[in-house]
Amino acid sequence: ISTGLAVAGVIVIARSIRITKFQAASEIPVRFIEGNVSLRGKVRSITERGIEVEHVPIYLPIISPNKQDYYASTSPLLVHLAGVELTPEGKTWLQKNLVPPQTVWLKLISREDDMLHCLVLLPSVQQGSMWSYCMNEELLRLGLARRAPIAGLPPGSPLYWRLHRRLHRAEVKAEKKGRGLWKKEGLWERAAKALKDNPLLRLMGRIFRRTRTDLETSQKLEKCEYKTGNSGSNFLLLSFVRQEVSTLHSSCTCLRCWCHLIS
Protein backbone atom coordinates (compact mmCIF):
# COMPACT_ATOMS: atom_id res chain seq x y z
CA ILE A 1 0.00 0.00 0.00
CA SER A 2 2.77 2.40 0.96
CA THR A 3 4.55 1.70 -2.34
CA GLY A 4 1.36 2.37 -4.27
CA LEU A 5 0.81 5.65 -2.42
CA ALA A 6 4.39 6.68 -3.10
CA VAL A 7 4.02 5.96 -6.82
CA ALA A 8 0.73 7.84 -6.90
CA GLY A 9 2.37 10.78 -5.16
CA VAL A 10 5.20 10.84 -7.68
CA ILE A 11 2.71 10.77 -10.54
CA VAL A 12 0.69 13.65 -9.09
CA ILE A 13 3.82 15.75 -8.47
CA ALA A 14 5.22 15.00 -11.91
CA ARG A 15 1.97 15.94 -13.59
CA SER A 16 1.66 19.16 -11.63
CA ILE A 17 5.21 20.35 -12.26
CA ARG A 18 7.01 18.91 -15.25
CA ILE A 19 4.97 17.06 -17.86
CA THR A 20 2.29 19.64 -18.73
CA LYS A 21 3.11 21.39 -21.99
CA PHE A 22 2.33 25.11 -21.91
CA GLN A 23 1.52 26.97 -25.12
CA ALA A 24 0.71 30.38 -23.63
CA ALA A 25 1.73 32.40 -20.59
CA SER A 26 -1.86 32.31 -19.30
CA GLU A 27 -1.71 28.49 -19.03
CA ILE A 28 1.09 28.55 -16.45
CA PRO A 29 -0.27 28.22 -12.88
CA VAL A 30 0.23 31.13 -10.50
CA ARG A 31 2.12 28.88 -8.07
CA PHE A 32 4.73 28.26 -10.78
CA ILE A 33 5.33 32.01 -11.10
CA GLU A 34 5.39 32.58 -7.34
CA GLY A 35 7.75 29.64 -6.84
CA ASN A 36 10.09 30.79 -9.66
CA VAL A 37 9.89 27.37 -11.28
CA SER A 38 12.31 26.68 -14.16
CA LEU A 39 10.84 25.44 -17.45
CA ARG A 40 12.80 23.85 -20.27
CA GLY A 41 12.29 25.01 -23.82
CA LYS A 42 13.66 25.34 -27.34
CA VAL A 43 14.38 28.69 -28.94
CA ARG A 44 12.01 29.29 -31.82
CA SER A 45 13.04 32.82 -32.86
CA ILE A 46 14.18 36.27 -31.69
CA THR A 47 11.63 39.01 -32.42
CA GLU A 48 11.23 42.71 -31.63
CA ARG A 49 8.96 41.80 -28.71
CA GLY A 50 11.23 39.18 -27.19
CA ILE A 51 12.33 35.54 -27.43
CA GLU A 52 9.89 32.93 -28.69
CA VAL A 53 10.47 29.66 -26.82
CA GLU A 54 8.60 26.38 -27.28
CA HIS A 55 8.05 24.69 -23.93
CA VAL A 56 9.53 21.17 -23.73
CA PRO A 57 8.40 19.36 -20.57
CA ILE A 58 10.14 16.27 -19.22
CA TYR A 59 8.89 13.13 -20.95
CA LEU A 60 7.97 10.17 -18.74
CA PRO A 61 6.83 7.12 -20.77
CA ILE A 62 4.22 5.93 -18.25
CA ILE A 63 2.86 9.28 -17.12
CA SER A 64 3.27 11.59 -20.10
CA PRO A 65 0.70 11.91 -22.89
CA ASN A 66 1.09 10.27 -26.28
CA LYS A 67 4.70 10.52 -27.44
CA GLN A 68 3.69 11.82 -30.86
CA ASP A 69 1.65 14.61 -29.27
CA TYR A 70 4.50 15.33 -26.87
CA TYR A 71 7.00 16.03 -29.65
CA ALA A 72 4.51 17.87 -31.88
CA SER A 73 5.30 21.52 -32.52
CA THR A 74 3.11 23.93 -30.56
CA SER A 75 2.66 27.66 -30.06
CA PRO A 76 5.73 29.26 -28.43
CA LEU A 77 5.88 31.24 -25.22
CA LEU A 78 6.86 34.90 -25.50
CA VAL A 79 9.79 35.59 -23.16
CA HIS A 80 11.37 38.86 -22.05
CA LEU A 81 14.75 39.06 -20.32
CA ALA A 82 13.82 40.22 -16.83
CA GLY A 83 15.41 43.48 -15.66
CA VAL A 84 17.25 44.10 -18.94
CA GLU A 85 16.89 46.69 -21.71
CA LEU A 86 18.80 45.64 -24.82
CA THR A 87 20.81 47.99 -27.02
CA PRO A 88 20.72 47.46 -30.82
CA GLU A 89 24.10 45.70 -30.50
CA GLY A 90 22.63 43.54 -27.75
CA LYS A 91 19.81 42.37 -30.01
CA THR A 92 22.33 41.42 -32.69
CA TRP A 93 24.44 39.53 -30.13
CA LEU A 94 21.37 37.71 -28.84
CA GLN A 95 20.39 36.60 -32.35
CA LYS A 96 23.88 35.16 -32.85
CA ASN A 97 24.03 33.36 -29.50
CA LEU A 98 20.47 32.05 -29.21
CA VAL A 99 20.08 30.01 -32.37
CA PRO A 100 17.01 27.79 -32.97
CA PRO A 101 16.47 25.07 -31.82
CA GLN A 102 18.85 25.74 -28.91
CA THR A 103 17.73 24.44 -25.51
CA VAL A 104 17.25 26.99 -22.72
CA TRP A 105 15.85 27.05 -19.20
CA LEU A 106 13.39 29.75 -18.24
CA LYS A 107 13.42 30.74 -14.57
CA LEU A 108 10.00 32.33 -14.14
CA ILE A 109 10.04 35.75 -12.46
CA SER A 110 6.71 37.35 -13.36
CA ARG A 111 3.98 37.43 -15.96
CA GLU A 112 2.29 40.33 -17.76
CA ASP A 113 -0.52 39.50 -20.18
CA ASP A 114 1.04 37.17 -22.78
CA MET A 115 4.63 37.98 -21.75
CA LEU A 116 6.82 35.97 -19.37
CA HIS A 117 9.64 37.83 -17.61
CA CYS A 118 12.40 35.31 -16.97
CA LEU A 119 16.05 34.67 -16.34
CA VAL A 120 17.13 32.83 -19.48
CA LEU A 121 19.73 30.16 -18.71
CA LEU A 122 21.75 28.00 -21.09
CA PRO A 123 22.48 24.43 -19.96
CA SER A 124 26.03 24.01 -18.67
CA VAL A 125 26.79 21.27 -21.21
CA GLN A 126 26.54 23.85 -24.01
CA GLN A 127 29.04 26.13 -22.34
CA GLY A 128 31.46 23.43 -21.16
CA SER A 129 31.23 24.52 -17.53
CA MET A 130 29.63 23.32 -14.31
CA TRP A 131 27.24 26.27 -14.04
CA SER A 132 24.31 27.61 -15.98
CA TYR A 133 24.91 30.57 -18.23
CA CYS A 134 22.55 33.50 -17.51
CA MET A 135 21.90 35.57 -20.63
CA ASN A 136 20.51 38.48 -18.59
CA GLU A 137 23.77 38.89 -16.67
CA GLU A 138 26.02 38.22 -19.66
CA LEU A 139 24.42 40.97 -21.73
CA LEU A 140 24.97 43.41 -18.87
CA ARG A 141 28.58 42.24 -18.35
CA LEU A 142 29.33 42.88 -22.03
CA GLY A 143 27.77 46.35 -21.94
CA LEU A 144 25.16 45.28 -24.51
CA ALA A 145 22.22 46.15 -22.25
CA ARG A 146 21.33 48.37 -19.32
CA ARG A 147 19.38 47.56 -16.21
CA ALA A 148 15.64 48.21 -16.28
CA PRO A 149 12.85 47.91 -13.68
CA ILE A 150 11.83 44.29 -13.14
CA ALA A 151 8.27 44.21 -14.42
CA GLY A 152 5.61 42.45 -12.38
CA LEU A 153 7.52 42.51 -9.08
CA PRO A 154 6.87 44.91 -6.18
CA PRO A 155 10.00 47.10 -5.80
CA GLY A 156 10.19 46.35 -2.09
CA SER A 157 9.96 42.56 -2.36
CA PRO A 158 12.96 40.37 -1.38
CA LEU A 159 13.06 38.76 -4.84
CA TYR A 160 13.16 42.16 -6.52
CA TRP A 161 16.18 43.26 -4.50
CA ARG A 162 18.00 39.94 -4.96
CA LEU A 163 17.67 40.24 -8.72
CA HIS A 164 18.46 43.95 -8.61
CA ARG A 165 21.77 43.34 -6.79
CA ARG A 166 22.64 40.44 -9.08
CA LEU A 167 22.08 42.45 -12.26
CA HIS A 168 23.70 45.55 -10.78
CA ARG A 169 26.95 43.65 -10.14
CA ALA A 170 27.03 42.52 -13.76
CA GLU A 171 26.46 46.07 -15.04
CA VAL A 172 29.16 47.51 -12.76
CA LYS A 173 31.71 45.08 -14.24
CA ALA A 174 30.96 46.37 -17.74
CA GLU A 175 31.19 49.97 -16.57
CA LYS A 176 34.57 49.43 -14.86
CA LYS A 177 36.03 47.70 -17.92
CA GLY A 178 34.54 50.20 -20.36
CA ARG A 179 32.66 47.61 -22.40
CA GLY A 180 29.89 48.23 -24.91
CA LEU A 181 27.80 51.28 -24.09
CA TRP A 182 30.25 52.09 -21.26
CA LYS A 183 33.20 52.37 -23.64
CA LYS A 184 35.08 55.60 -22.98
CA GLU A 185 36.35 57.77 -25.82
CA GLY A 186 40.09 58.34 -26.08
CA LEU A 187 41.79 61.75 -25.95
CA TRP A 188 42.01 62.08 -29.73
CA GLU A 189 38.39 61.02 -30.19
CA ARG A 190 37.23 63.63 -27.67
CA ALA A 191 39.41 66.29 -29.31
CA ALA A 192 38.09 65.45 -32.79
CA LYS A 193 34.51 65.60 -31.56
CA ALA A 194 35.11 68.94 -29.83
CA LEU A 195 36.73 70.40 -32.96
CA LYS A 196 33.88 69.17 -35.11
CA ASP A 197 31.29 70.84 -32.86
CA ASN A 198 33.29 74.06 -32.32
CA PRO A 199 31.43 77.21 -33.53
CA LEU A 200 34.64 79.04 -34.52
CA LEU A 201 35.77 76.27 -36.84
CA ARG A 202 32.29 76.01 -38.35
CA LEU A 203 32.44 79.76 -39.04
CA MET A 204 35.83 79.43 -40.73
CA GLY A 205 34.49 76.60 -42.85
CA ARG A 206 31.48 78.65 -43.97
CA ILE A 207 33.73 81.63 -44.80
CA PHE A 208 36.01 79.39 -46.86
CA ARG A 209 33.07 77.88 -48.74
CA ARG A 210 31.58 81.33 -49.35
CA THR A 211 34.91 82.70 -50.58
CA ARG A 212 35.32 79.79 -52.96
CA THR A 213 31.77 80.26 -54.25
CA ASP A 214 32.39 83.98 -54.82
CA LEU A 215 35.59 83.25 -56.72
CA GLU A 216 33.87 80.70 -58.92
CA THR A 217 31.03 83.14 -59.59
CA SER A 218 33.51 85.90 -60.43
CA GLN A 219 35.34 83.66 -62.88
CA LYS A 220 32.08 82.76 -64.60
CA LEU A 221 31.13 86.42 -64.88
CA GLU A 222 34.52 87.27 -66.39
CA LYS A 223 34.07 84.55 -68.98
CA CYS A 224 30.73 86.11 -69.90
CA GLU A 225 32.57 89.42 -70.39
CA TYR A 226 30.84 91.18 -67.49
CA LYS A 227 32.83 93.78 -65.67
CA THR A 228 32.80 93.14 -61.97
CA GLY A 229 34.78 95.29 -59.55
CA ASN A 230 36.65 93.73 -56.63
CA SER A 231 35.10 96.23 -54.25
CA GLY A 232 31.60 94.77 -54.75
CA SER A 233 32.79 91.23 -54.14
CA ASN A 234 34.78 92.29 -51.09
CA PHE A 235 31.77 94.16 -49.71
CA LEU A 236 29.59 91.06 -50.01
CA LEU A 237 32.23 88.92 -48.32
CA LEU A 238 32.70 91.47 -45.51
CA SER A 239 28.94 91.59 -44.90
CA PHE A 240 28.85 87.79 -44.70
CA VAL A 241 31.74 87.71 -42.22
CA ARG A 242 30.07 90.31 -40.01
CA GLN A 243 26.84 88.30 -40.00
CA GLU A 244 28.63 85.06 -39.10
CA VAL A 245 30.68 86.75 -36.35
CA SER A 246 27.46 88.11 -34.84
CA THR A 247 26.01 84.58 -34.81
CA LEU A 248 29.19 83.20 -33.27
CA HIS A 249 29.13 85.88 -30.55
CA SER A 250 25.64 84.85 -29.45
CA SER A 251 26.53 81.14 -29.19
CA CYS A 252 30.11 81.24 -27.93
CA THR A 253 31.36 84.51 -26.42
CA CYS A 254 34.88 83.34 -25.74
CA LEU A 255 37.43 81.06 -27.38
CA ARG A 256 38.13 79.61 -23.94
CA CYS A 257 34.85 77.68 -24.22
CA TRP A 258 36.45 75.65 -27.00
CA CYS A 259 39.53 74.98 -24.88
CA HIS A 260 37.26 73.77 -22.08
CA LEU A 261 35.54 71.32 -24.43
CA ILE A 262 38.68 69.39 -25.25
CA SER A 263 40.24 69.55 -21.79
Fold and architecture overview:
The protein has helices at residues 2-17, 30-34, 67-71, 88-97, 124-127, 135-141, 158-177, 187-197, 199-223, 230-251, 256-262, and strands at residues 38-46, 51-55, 77-81, 84-86, 103-112, 115-122, 133-134, 145-147. It has 263 residues and is an alpha+beta fold. It is elongated and about 110 Å long.
Any key phrases for this structure?
50% helix; 5-stranded mixed beta barrel; OB fold (Dihydrolipoamide Acetyltransferase, E2P); 2 domains; disordered C terminus; single chain; alpha+beta; 263 residues; 11 helices; two-stranded antiparallel sheet
Spatial strand arrangement across the major sheet: 1-2-3-6-5
Q: How many structural units, i.e. domains?
A: 2
Overall shape: it is elongated
By CATH, the architecture of the largest domain is named: Beta Barrel
Number of strands: 8
Largest sheet, strands/sense/barrel: 5 strands, mixed, barrel
Number of helices: 11
